[in-house]
């Protein structure tokens, strides 16, 4: 395995993903928590950083357990830190060095640059530059503006580069990482979905023995893949609970429950729609609605967990980005802290926690799911918010509004599938607006609800853009909705990007 020491760069996760794409397992640790078993790592990569090496509080880790002992690659700040620390000079750059650059010199026969040629585009993002290298350091590449764009240390397998190989715009970045990890550090490329499943199932068997685990299924990708892994390890000692909060898509509860049963999971469906609706009555503030739903879910889940005798573990579908967040250089975020501080935790939250996906990125979760034979349709589903349709019905919630929105959403989503557009969209849904508008049907004047359709493209939900759906499709969908869903007489399409808008309307 490979260690990535994080100095707080926005690109650290991207380095990890690139390494995983090479079928090599890696873990990220903050620079101030070098793991005790560091000697077991086959290679180490130092990330970039928002700091300048000249800042007083800049990271200054002790690398004596690593440098000269394990193959080491410094990226950006990592390169500057080593150069400065061992007697070189790092100074503020005269020219701003952000964005595209091209390698203008590469040392001959240098393994790090094997199969990479002069002219190759690299991506720079730094304010300081290495103006002189320590004695036993050797320049191995330059760009027009950056003399020491890459160096190595004589007699060691220590390398450093000023540019970012992990970003897409460094056209030979993957080659360089492969040269370092495979040719220089001799790391095996044996991290595959199949090998992950095999080793994880073995670990889970060992860890859980005959213990019982309870896990909440949501219909989403993460909880499903986590459940299938646990099922492979402990079979019916895994108790899955799938709660219908009454705010799911049309037919979703029955269909997904059926799918789960088909997959052989020991699952219990709990239809608690009325309980949720009751708690939501009269609430129109978005955060109050979210709270009511969250609390009711906890109550329902706790009741169900109590019915399982001697259960000692809670299974969760936590994935790597959440884990990194909670151990990051910047420290755990406020929200992660707060839920551990709540007094009087429900009983199930006192269980020991097992998280089979805590080392995986989202795309790896899908690949693992696919390798275990989970249906592509299930793995490719759009994200759906936990509070469900409640945050797509603006204002207060009633059973009738839920019914209307379920019908509208169903026509929209089925249409996307029929037109082959579903997989081009990252997330789609319909919003029921709290306004009525005038319409005319036959000879009658109507005064009915307006719905908005929303379809966005995104990679992680942090930023998003609206999707340019074909007019013909929008036309057909709008007609169907107005003709078939009683209570709706107008359809609009949301053309706002995030930021400044958000994906959901509340
Ligand atoms: P926004 O509206 O913030 O949404 O742009 C970003 C992503 O988060 C989802 N979302 C939620 N998911 N509980 C959830 O589980 C929530 O309260 C919630 N609010 C928004 C949203 O669907 C989108 O994928």
UniProtKB/TrEMBL annotation:
One Pfam family hit: NAD_synthase
Sequence positions that bind ATP: 218-224
Known pathway: Purine metabolism; GMP biosynthesis; GMP from XMP (L-Gln route): step 1/1
Active site, per annotation: 76, 164, 166
GO MF term list: GMP synthase (glutamine-hydrolyzing) activity
Reactions listed under catalytic activity: XMP + L-glutamine + ATP + H2O = GMP + L-glutamate + AMP + diphosphate + 2 H(+)
Keyword hit for Protease: no
Gene3D superfamilies: 3.30.300.10, 3.40.50.880, HUPs
EC number: 6.3.5.2
NCBIfam families: guaA_Cterm, guaA_Nterm, PRK00074.1
Name under which the protein is recorded: GMP synthase [glutamine-hydrolyzing]
Lineage, uppermost ranks: Bacteria, Pseudomonadati, Bacteroidota, Flavobacteriia, Flavobacteriales
Gene name per UniProt: guaA
